[in-house]
Write a structure and sequence with these properties.
heterodimer; A: 301 residues; mainly alpha; MetI-like fold; 2 domains; 72% helix; B: 322 residues; MetI-like_sf (chain A); transport (chain A); cell membrane (chain A)
Amino acid sequence: MSKVSQYQDGGISRARSFAPDLRHNAFEARAMANVLLTAGAWFVAALGAVPLVSVIYMLVVKGGARLNTELFTELPPAGFEMGGGIGNAIQGTLVTVGIASAISIPIALLAAIYLAEFRPNSNIAVAARFLSKVLTGFPSILAGVFVYAAVVLLMGTYSALAGGVALAVLMLPTVTLTAEGAMRMVPQRMKDAAIGMGCTKTQVVWSVTLPTALPSIVTGVILAVARVAGESAPLLFTALFSNYWLRSVKEPTASLSILIYNFSSMPFENQIELAWAASLVLVLIVLTFNILSRFIGRPQV
Amino acid sequence: MSVQFVVPGSKSVSRPPSVAAYLVDRTFFFIAALGALIIIALVAYILWEIGGQALPAIRTSGAKFLINTGWDAQRGNFGILPQIWGTLYSSLLALAIGGFIGITIAIFLTQDFLPPRIAVIFRTLIEMLAAIPSVVFGLWGIFVVIPFVRPGANWLFEHAGFIPFFGSSLSGPGLLPAVIVLSIMILPTVAAISQDAIGLVPYKIKEAAYGMGATRWEAILKVIVPTASGGIFSALVLGFGRALGETMALAMLIGNSNQISLSLFSPANTLAALLASNFPEAAQPERQALMYAALVLLAITLVVNVFGTLILIWTSQKVAKA
């Protein structure tokens, strides 16, 4: 409030001199503060870009050095062995993410249809929406703890299936919320037209809402997949790790993220190099999904 | 029941739903409702399952668990005060750094500092930062951040070691590298939500400030940021929530040492990192204690996230009404 009165006062005193001084004075304290703050903002923004540049540089230089066919086809090396690859880790990541998608996407889409179309304001919808928002901020390691208690103890073994369930817990709220948002973007008049022709709500959902919202839904799904592909905390004690190819989803499996975690603390140069190469592959997978989602998700309505 | 407008045999496109379509509709309605109910049930099941597993530890240790400092699996003596301290301390420091940079970037990208096309590219770069997996940041932290900050940190310890923040040397993993990486990881969250909040500020408010002769930064700091303060605050709260639950980068960088220290260079531990490093090899009494620790982490993040989400919903409603 004091600022406002100060300006008013300044206005009055200038009015008395009949000629308000509107010229820009570069040496006025507030003009100099403006320049300094602008310079500061440029500096901070540049600082914010440094980590990304550094990470990408390290990935390309350190990880790129091991980017060959052996990397994709061989198994991880033991202690003092040279060479080796991360084939089973790539396989494990694809399998666990596949299981997670198969479990979470159908449930999430059904929930989103309920939230966006059937009963947007019912108690169930309000509660489910709120809990989804809270779940998106849920620490991913707790998904691992939960699935350990709910699945691993029940099955009596660590498994790719348990890892997939843990990732599904993380995907479910994200996909639900983005799919609900996408369905809400479909213009109401299109839905009204369908209802006016005698469609049931279900027919409206299947023939109007879903086809129209599909690009945005696919974007949300791809982003969620990209996010869980890079997750490691939920896999630590659900999928565990394995040095061999995966033959059944009831076995423990390797994954790229856990391989990076395990190898990063090893005292062997070979393993560290493989950790960088695995990081490069993982980041490439994640970024490909991200870029893909941008192309598909161009607004079409 | 329904009034029949359509003359049988006519070619009208609109007609009331048939009985079959109606039955399909009711069935699908209940299936969709089931999807929504699964989300609610899942949250309840998570609380029940982790709570149930932690129950024996809660019975034996009770509230002492929260203030004890030891973690001794052999003697069955568990306490998580150092982890709670490390979680809050590292997250607050990361929030101070990452929050400041994130909000500055949000202002930088929304207030016409850059031509729109370059602003879009910069925004994409920051979003890419959010896409990089946590363990890759951990690996980068081990091989880039630690060697980079070590000489400076040890110089500060030698010359300013009497200040508690610099009271130990950085021998490798420690709080400082963990905080640096953590602040980079929450930066995109804070920047994205703050950008949305600033974007909601009506343009005419900014024009009014300029019209009164405000400089660009006077308009930003005295008009736009205060107007968007609710959204920016919730960005900070949600960023804080992310920092609290972040696991892998911390498990790789913080040193996993159960001590309480103000020093930025000493190793520490967090609740999530404790779970990550001890859970896989833990036997029974320790596993229950870890479940108890998970419950504490769940409670802390739940409170922070519910708080942040509520502020976000509340302020966006307020701005929408204005």
